[in-house]
Structure to design on (515 residues):
């Protein structure tokens, strides 16, 4: 269980995350929805301790991320596709990570196989396509076989087969009882993958709900999302015609 | 989740695990090996060239053979800085911190591994440069030997200076974080600024990193002023120089570690 409590983060004068609270439960894929710049990535960064919140906190099984005993075995995260040194091979990258958490060497080959990078494992990762880079990031997240998976836009750069694969992977990981938290701006993807949804706008919680609940009473999940986020768009007050924007984008 | 967390083994990640990660990271980059080879080859090549061209048997022949140390240190300082800044430029830092979020421990492990590699390469380069520089002496000048006063110390401390300048660079890299800026700070701080300082405030000249290495660490006896010099900078003894250089590196690493622990990654 992950508990996000009253999380607030400012960058200069910009309030990126504003008093955000929600829980992530095991056995469920929770989708993380929000428009561009709504604070999804910042929230992910705050959960794994890359950035320090100005207020509030995150607890992972009751602990702060930095106090985890074996971080990679407890939380697997994919924050941005290119989070590796371009001069290192995929295998070198994963071998180094495995060493940091005393993960057995054979697990490196297992995850390389699992993400379909076994034949490219010796190549410099800097030469990888975005899809391959994404797969390497996913391999790193899965390396410690963790009970929590956090993925920011994991389908970015993946081909249709890859999208299908990651969807199956994440739903099966959740079915095994793991916490799975996935952000995406592809609503249709969320409709297929997630059971629960956390929706934010301008860093604030708009909804903490289920896919079924959110879609109810709207033509589609997308329509429900647009109606919800449009209400929070920051330029709404200044814009003379918010309604026309809603029509144009739905 | 309780069933899954139960699979997490007892204990917790420690310095040795993070150090292992850093060692694999360092050795799995070709650029590491190229830079180390060029630094060592430069130090040895210059020592040999100076040996061939030495005509004065009365000079500090050990210091001559070690003349390539100071230029090669530039590469060690830059390599140390890049060991940290490349994490930021590539985005690797996100992955590194997700595996080892205790940041001071991470920097300590990185510094220990890089420092050990730099000292090892430095000692090898210094000893090879010393023997090669001695062997290439001509004009009937006898090669210096390690048993002569101060010689072994000079060769050993020359090798140690690879580690200390490397760690100074690593600490500066952790402070600055941006590769280009860090390289500028390393070259500016270690090579350019001291030249300026020794012009403006000559008394401080002997306390600058490169002057410490050139005049205190790589010499068999502390540098002396030329006769009738109108001004003489204060040259540190070899051990005092080593200590001050160690303080510089420690200060940079401490500041870098303090900032690393407090800043957003």
């Amino acid at each position: 269980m992950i508990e996000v409590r009253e999380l607030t983060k400012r960058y200069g004068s910009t309030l990126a995350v504003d008093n955000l609270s929600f829980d992530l439960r095991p056995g469920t894929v929770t989708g993380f929805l929000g428009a561009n710049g709504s604070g999804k990535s910042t929230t992910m960064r705050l959960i794994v301790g890359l950035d320090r919140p100005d207020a509030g906190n995150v607890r992972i099984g009751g602990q702060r991320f930095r106090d985890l005993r074996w971080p990679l075995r407890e939380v697997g995260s994919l924050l941005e596709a290119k989070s590796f040194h371009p001069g290192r091979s995929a295998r070198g990258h994963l071998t180094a990570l495995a060493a940091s958490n005393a993960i057995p060497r054979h697990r490196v080959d297992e995850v390389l196989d699992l993400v379909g990078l076994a034949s490219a494992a010796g190549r410099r990762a800097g030469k990888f396509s975005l899809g391959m880079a994404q797969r390497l990031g996913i391999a790193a997240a899965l390396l410690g076989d963790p009970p929590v998976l956090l993925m920011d836009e994991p389908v970015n750069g993946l081909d249709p087969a890859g999208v299908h694969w990651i969807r199956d992977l994440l739903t099966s990981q959740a079915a095994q009882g793991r916490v799975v938290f996935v952000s995406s701006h592809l609503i249709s993807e969320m409709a297929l993958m997630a059971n629960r949804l956390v929706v934010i706008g301008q860093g604030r919680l708009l909804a903490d709900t289920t896919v079924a609940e959110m879609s109810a009473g709207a033509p589609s999940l997308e329509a429900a999302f647009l109606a919800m986020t449009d209400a929070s768009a920051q330029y709404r007050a200044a814009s003379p015609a918010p309604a026309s924007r809603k029509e144009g984008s739905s | 989740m309780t069933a899954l967390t139960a699979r997490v083994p007892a204990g917790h990640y420690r310095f040795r695990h993070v150090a292992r990660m850093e060692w694999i990271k360092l050795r799995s980059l070709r650029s590491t090996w190229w830079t180390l080879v060029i630094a060592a080859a430069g130090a040895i090549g210059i020592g040999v060239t100076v040996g061939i061209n030495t005509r004065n048997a009365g000079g500090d022949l050990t210091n001559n053979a070690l003349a390539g140390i100071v230029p090669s240190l530039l590469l060690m300082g830059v390599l140390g800085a890049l060991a940290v800044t490349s994490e930021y430029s590539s985005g690797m830092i996100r992955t590194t911190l997700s595996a080892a979020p205790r940041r001071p421990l991470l920097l300590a492990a990185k510094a220990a591994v890089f420092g050990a590699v730099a000292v090892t390469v430095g000692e090898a380069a210094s000893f090879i440069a010393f023997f090669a520089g001695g062997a290439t002496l001509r004009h009937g000048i006898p090669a210096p030997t390690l048993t002569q006063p101060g010689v072994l110390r000079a060769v050993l401390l020359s090798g140690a200076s690879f580690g200390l300048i490397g760690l100074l660079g690593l600490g500066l890299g952790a402070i600055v974080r941006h590769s280009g800026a860090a390289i500028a700070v390393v070259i500016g701080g270690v090579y350019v600024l001291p030249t300026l300082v020794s012009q403006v405030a000559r008394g401080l000249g002997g306390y600058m990193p490169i002057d410490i290495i050139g005049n205190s660490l790589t010499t068999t006896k502390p540098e002396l002023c030329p006769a009738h010099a109108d001004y003489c900078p204060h040259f540190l003894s070899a051990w005092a120089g080593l200590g001050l250089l160690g303080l510089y590196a420690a200060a940079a690493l401490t500041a870098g570690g303090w900032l690393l622990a407090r800043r957003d990654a």
Q: What stands out?
A: The interface with chain A takes residues 1, 3-5, 7-9, 11-13, 17-18, 20-22, 24-25, 28-31, 86-87, 90-92, 94-95, 97-102, 262, 264-265 of chain B (CB under 8 Å).
